[in-house]
Amino acid sequence: MKRFLKSSLWLLLLIGVLALAACSNSESKKEEKPEDPDTTDDHSEGEGEASTDTGSPVEIEFWHAMSGSGQESLDKIVEGFNQSQEDYVVKAEFQGTYEESLTKLRSVGGTKDAPAITQVFEVGTKYMIDSGFIEPMNTFIEKDNFDLSQLEENILNYYKVDGELYSMPFNSSTPVMIYNKDAFKEAGLDPEKAPETFSEVIEAAAKLKTDEMYGFSMLTYGWFFEQLVATQGGLYVNEDNGRSGDATEALFNGPEGLNVFDFLDQMNKAGTFGNFGTNWDDIRAAFSTGKVAMYMDSSAGVANIIETSPFEIGVAYIPYADEVERNGVVIGGASLWMSKGIAEEEQEAAWTFMKYLTTPEVQAEWHLDTGYFAINPSAYDEANVVEKWEEYPQFKVTVDQLQDTKPGLATQGALISVFPESRQQIVTALEDLYQGKSPQEALDQAAEGTNRAIEIANKTK
Hints:
By secondary structure, this protein is α/β, with parallel strands linked by helices.
């Protein structure tokens, strides 16, 4: 019960904000965080306003959640844009985690005080579409005859709903399997051929296991579970993964989800699986220090793991169940959303900046700086990328897996407004699995928790 209450905090916060919004028609300054983000009928107040000083460049705010090297690279991109022209100035402002940034957006969304651009993680897509806060990208794509075909199809597919693109993909990643080539050699395994299926991973993990090293590990995180279900062609929820209508029921406790839990359960019981918890740094440190031979990570983490590991690194596609064909991976990361209710000139500034972001030159630098995919694949032909890939061929594997993905409902990804809570339900289920609960029982419990959250969200929509 305690775990359910804890995992429900995100949803309760959302419901609370919606309730306050329905009861208040007052509008205040940005610093006062107005409580009417969902009052969509009043959005016209900020639209069409012209700058009072036409001699000055239009300034817009860009709220983001990038930190560390990602923030450094983003700041360089913004500076490059500001220096490339004189009409607009973008001010990039760090707002904390994705969750913290989205909470701040709710207090001003849909008003003239909202930032022109907000970065939102992929599982916030359904919420953002329903919020009334945003101006769909298609509005400007059609007006400007912008060529979407230049962008990566399997990235666009996630953010398209009913054929319409609502946000501009930005920092995109997928999971990969990373392995210790030196450990493979010592275990008598081919270091140039990673295991592909669940049974092959189980067999390799048994051979790689030593007193100091586990064979395989996976972060206790719902995203990886979702990917292992999707690559089998399995859906996460009904209503075509929430893309033909509002989902009402979880499907991840079906055969595909059970395959994943059986896969992990078998290695856990055999002692070849290492449980390093929910912290990304912990599992990466375990790999780099030789405590585990294979693990799943984000494609954006490949560069860092190569640099920090004292042995040769292999990168491979994520594994899949033996009885199915590999479907591929679902995009993770975040996209950029344009605010509705702000001045038209601010929207134009935001659109101009987003187009700048998609250029091959900018995307090449972003890819090399951060490890995220280039949303414009022409970036991979840039000289600096070609040179880097020759030095680190592992980077190409991540892109190959994305481009080999079969478009479909499974790999397009699920849309539900309560995804963060559902992921927490999966975390609890994995923890219970490792403590001895049966795979089906653990999965069914997570599905029940997800169904309750979906039901509440649909009633309060």
